[in-house]
Amino acid sequence: MIKKENLNHKKAIAVLSGGLDSAVATAFYAKEYDIHAITFDYGQKAAKKEIQVSKEICEALNIKHTVMDLKWLGQISNSALTTDKPIPEIENNKLDDTKTCTSTADKVWVPGRNIVFTSIATSFAEAEHAEIIIVGWDKEEAATFPDNSKEFLEKYNQMLKEGSPQNITVKAPAIDLSKKEIVQLGQKYNAPMNLSYSCYKGNNKHCGVCESCMRRKRAFKEAQISDPTDYEQ
Asked: What is the CATH number of the domain that holds 143?
């Protein structure tokens, strides 16, 4: 792989799960920054697949990629993502039902996940003198995941002003967007959405029935953009 030439030498750290949101967010800044993407293995069922696709996304964007072992996080978690508990499934007509989605969010919640991820990314940013940390937080998931919210973003950035000697800012280009709008943004910035993987289950194909898959399906359909995803159902 030929190392890309970055004339302005601005550096960024990206928290890249390999999912749709983080892939689009990373691609959004790929031409402006020299990005070092980090993928976390916290013992999640989809870890192997997420690492694989994250590597492919980084190759497509010609950026550096590091995998961090955080299996301790999965070991202290009671989440369906990291235990033998079944991954919750949801029907399309329930995706905007707050009660239903709060229940599924509780079942897949991993303790302090985005706090841990972003804190580690901060360490990388300080060490590498990066100006920004790129995350895929978005409005749709913020409805049931508080660590995806605009309020969380603003408060984390306020903490950085107080706690870091460097001028680092967390950037979330999808913070005000729905999944449909994220797909539209991804098309605009030529994000490798075809390589991204959103499924909670970790199979080779997207299951097509977990909440993450259902939101992905709906996003492409509502955006009227061809869905490149291979679903089991």
From this structure: 3.40.50.620
